Every structure is written in structure tokens, then in C-alpha cells.
# Entry
Amino acid sequence: MSELPRAIELGVIGCHVCGLVCRDTGQLGMACPRCGAALNRRKKASISRTWALLITAFILYIPANLLPIMRTVSVGDVDDNTILSGVVELWVNGSPSLAVIVFTASIVVPMLKFFVLGTLLVSTQRGSSWALLQRAKLYRLVEFIGYWSMLDVFVVALLTALVRFNILSRVEPLPGVVFFGLTVVLTMLASMSFDPRLIWDGKDNDD
Amino acid sequence: MTREISPPGDDLPEPVVQHPRFNVSLIWLVPVVAALVGLSLVIHDWLQAGPNITITFQTAEGLEAGKTLVKYKNVVIGKVTRIQLSHDRSHVLVKVALDKSTESFAAADTRYWVVRPRIGLGGISGVDTLLSGAFIGADVGHSQQYRDEFIGLETPPTVLYDAPGKGFILHGDDLGSLDIDSPVYYRRIQVGRVASYQLDKDGKGVSVDIFVDGPNDKFVTRASRFWNAGGVDVSLGANGLKVNSQSLTTMLAGGVAFQDPPGTHDRAPASENTSFTLFGDQATAMSPPDGPPRYIRMRFDQSLRGLAVDAPVEFFGINIGHVVSIDLDYDAKKQRFPVNVGAVVYPRRLGRVYEKLAAVAEVKANGADLSRMMGVLIKHGLRAQARTGNLLAGQLYISLDFVPTAPKVAFDPLAKPLEIPTAPGSFDKVQEQLAQIVDRFQKIPFESIGKNLDRTMGELNHTVQQINDDMLPEFKSTLKDARQTLGTANEALSADSPLRQNLSETLEQLQRMARSLRVLSDYLGGHPESLIRGRQSDPSPNNPAPSVQTNATQQGSKP
# Structure
């Protein structure tokens, strides 16, 4: 890896949008001559943006878990469920597989993203050259699984739309699901704003 | 691109230079906003949280931590957060988190109870909780004191604090068939219910708290009378069989009824917690106030079969009291068994009579005492009699009445108890008279009457025999003759008989004659002069109309 040069070392810069490679003049406010997009060696303020979005997501993740996300009304019996109580109920009522899926999508994946992005940010900030390739793979994993945590939101949206039998049975969304949806969106934005090339910037420090 | 990378080409295009638009990273606003939102939620939640209270119940049946709600007028005011047993495991402690806005529900006199489906004699309640599960009902108190530990009621309270209406206290001898929630009736409409009851402290009666709902509470006046309307009131007394009931519900569940007494009375509505007497039945309740009771004693020299304790004592037909004791006594001197009857009378029931008598007695004896009044009356022949009130059932009652023929007796107005002299009852007299009638009957010579009757019958038989033998054959022949005569008459009147034909001809001629007579009379009516002048042969040329008439008459008179 070390024999592969980076664009900075070669004095070139690539456009994020159209991929055109230009000479890096080092001036402020460079723009792509072909498509007009702003040229940056790395994504602008990538670390701080990712941090900000990640922290926001984490803050919102607290009410998302504490507030009930769904109200099930069946024959007069009103039942408010948070994410975790829903998982527990699924498990107790004899659908452990569903419980595992929901648990994975709603608890494991967001936590994984917080943890992975946090690790990436910290290590990148410190310019660590530790496990560069693994970190890059982790980043791709986060990018990939990001949207799967929307599962819970979809479940609530679908149930609300489908289960409408007035008195007999009814499902209503509760504020928790909004926070949860925001959390998922913000983690996705956070992983988007992270520039994986920063990982490789740390390899020099190793020397 | 086939261009080589190794020499960073000089032919690469120069980037365009733009001025930076932002130099402050606004991205940090996002977590700040999120934090603010989160913080506001926390603060909101914290502000919303009201007091946490603990309610003690006998059982946690139907309650569920985190789910069971606390409701007031079906509005959620809190939620059960935890249910645990008390240290000695004798009851359950239910922790409830009240909402901020319902802090007043922690007032010291607030009551809590569990609303479950209940089925009672008064009806079914809490059906909705069958599906939705039990909840804790609350009735907010008015106390300014707050506390966080409450003892839950096992049954819902009958009367809520802010319910419009008034509570009253009834004092009675016994509870009857009353129970909590028993209805209170006014003119057979339910206007309230029994809230609670307890024994009096001395154990000599019961106090019943009732609640009359507004706006009907205004019908409870200071003069109102309350009576126990429970069950079926079947009484077999001197007045006959009487069945009375307020309603079907009261027959089963008991109830209280009230009404104003007839006549003039205080119509001002009674104030809250006024005490009333609870009477046993409507008749007692509606009768005028009894006033103080007086004990009197009577001594009867006859059998009093049919006289029972509680039999009425009447004065000129007005019930003034009742018999309380019947004792057999032995009079060694006369070798008889007199019956001592004790009775309680309420002189005030006589109303105006009592006042007037009192006035008279006062004038005469200087003291309106019953004994003195009685003394005056007894001097004029007042006596107690055991009379039959109901011939069918043979019930006796005591009647105070004037017996003009009664022998004079000595009366001691100072004796205690007051002793009323007695006279034999009317029924005894009837019995005596009946015995006399029977005696007379026995004197009638039924035997000789029978013999005479027998002989007369024999003679009658003989006479009938004679009639049969002599008169009947003659009668038969007479009948035969009569039938023959009728046959002859029948023939003479038949359709083809000569008599009949002659008759019809004669009738025809008679008809014809009648017609001529009519024509003649018509003519005479038109020409009365013809009677003298005779018939005019020529009609006058001057007036044709009469001529027509004349012609017509001529034509008519031809036949």
C-alpha cells in the first residue's frame, strides 16, 4: 500500500462529482472546470460534520428508545410499546425469529454505527495508522447496513396504514418513531459525510 | 484516459478560483438543536410529573404495573407504576404517578377505588372494564392537606364529593332490608341512595346516611317523613290483609321513601345533614307526630282469643296506640281469670281533641295530665272493650268508647299505671243473643209439625189421583171437538172456496164504487153549484181552461 501514491503527493485533485482529475493549485475555492463543483482535497470539514451528525443521532437515539413508538389498541386493550418492549413482547409471544430481526435492525445496527463511526472518527482524528484496511472495510459495512435500520419505521408505517379496524384493533404511531427515524437518517448522513480517504492519510504517521 | 500519470503534466487544466462561501461550520448547530430538543423533552416530562402516591388495596386483582390508569370522570390523571406487597403481606401497595395538572388529587381526603365489573342487586356497573381492564377511580377531596399514602376503598363510594345534592341522616330502630346503595324514593321516583349506615354508639338504633341527588334534594323539607320502603309489607291485622311495596327493586334490595306529611307544614328545604326519624312503614311515618307515649292498663274478665301484641288501640275509630302486653291473672276472691292488657297510647294523635280535652281538664283539675282527662271521660262512661276487627280472621282490637249502660266505677287518676275500666265487648253480646235464639229454636215442636205435614201430603196425593181418573178423559174429547171445528174453518177460508171468490168480487165492486165517488166529489169541488142547478152541459166559450177541466170531469164521470 505504501508504494501507492496519494493525489496530494502527486499534486492532483479529483472532482467528487464528475471524477475529473485537475492539478492541485492549493488555492482556496477551487472548482471543477468541467462540472463546476467545488474541489476539495478531502471532504470539507468531514470529521467535524460527522461528529456533529453522529452526536445528534446519538442524542435522538435516547428518546427513540425511551418513548413508545407504537400504540396497539385491540378490543379496548391499549398497549404502548417502545422498541425494546416490542422486542420483548415478540419474544414472549412466541416469535423469537421476528424478535431477533427487529432487535438487530433497531438496536444492533444503530449501536454498531455509533460504535464504528466513533472508532473511525477517533482513529482518523488521531491520524492512527492502525488497521487501515479493516477500518476501510468497516466504513463500507456501515454504509451498507445503514438503511436497514429503517425497518422499524417501515413496520410502524405499514401497520398504522393496514391495521385500522376501529374498535376491534388499531395501530397508531407514537412520537418515539419520529426520533428513531431521525436517528437513522442522521447516522446515514454522518457516514456519508465521513471521508474514507482520511483513513489512508494516517499511514504516513506510522513511519 | 491514456494519458500518463507519472509526470504530473503541465498540460493539466488550472482550477478556477472561487471565494469561499462559509468559513464557520454550521454543522454543529445540528447536535445543539437535537440536544435542546432532548433537553426540552426532559424538562417537559419533569414538569409534567406530579406527585407519586401509594394506595393500599386488599388485592391487586385486575391491576397491572405500567398499564393500569387512574381516572377521574374517565379522564386519565395518572398511571400505576409499581405494585408490591406490604411488609406483612396483608395487602398490596400500588404506587401511582399522578400527572402534574392533577396535583390536587393528592389531597388528604381523596378516595381511590378499583373499578371492576360488579353485579349487585342495584344493577351492573363497570361493564366497560371487562374489555379495557380495571382502572383506579378517584374522587378528589377538598382538603388543603396533602399526603402521599392513601387507603383504597374496596367498593366504589356511593356519593362523590362534588355530586349535587344533600346528605341526610336517618335514625331508625333497625336497618330493615336496607343496604349501601339502596334507593331513596320520592313519589316512587328514585332520587337518591343510601350512602352508609352504622349502629348508634349506644347500640339502641341505627343511623343511616342517605344522599339525595340534586335538584330533587329540595323536596326534602324540614317536615319530611322517611320510612323504610323495603321488601313487601304484608300485614294481617285488625284492618285485614295488606300488601304494600314501593317497587320491584325495593322488594328485593330494600329502599327508603320520603314524603311530606299532609296538611300545613314547614316547606323550607332541609339543610345538609339534617337528622330525621326513619319509620318502619308509610302509615306510621305519615301519621301526626306521636308525642310522648303513655302506658295504660286494662283488666278484662273474658277470654281475649285473637288479641295479639301490637293490636291497635282505637279511640272512636282513631288509632292512638297499640297493645304491648297480654298477661293472664288469677283473681282468688272471684275465682276468675282476668286478663291484664297493657298498651301504649299516644294522646297527641288525637290532635285537636287532645288540646280541647286538655283545656277542659285544666279548668277542672288544674293540670293537663292524661289521667285527669281520662278521669273526666271515664265519669261519662268511657270504657275499654275488646272488639272484633275482622270477623274472618277473628282479630281483636281494643276500643275506647262510651258505654252508656256501663256501671259506675271508682277511678284513681293518680294510679300508676293508668288503669282504664273495661266493659264486655260487643262480640260477647252477640254471642249471648245467638245463644238465646238457639234456645228459642229448640222450643219449636218440630215433631208434631212433621206429622201434620205428612197427613196433608197423603190427602193431596188422593186428590191428584181423582183428577187423573175423572177429568182427563173428558178433557181429551173436548180437545178432539175443538180440532174438528178448526178444520172446518180452515176449509172455508182456503183459496178456491166460493166464499173467498164472492169476497174478492165484492171487493172489486167496492173499489169501483169508491172511484165513482171520488169523481163525483171532484166535480162537486169544482162546481158546487151543480148541486142546485144540475150538471151544465155546455162549456163557456170565454174561458177554455175550465172547459178542459169540465171535459176531463165529463170523461171521468162516464163510467
About this structure: The longest strand of chain B covers residues 75-85.
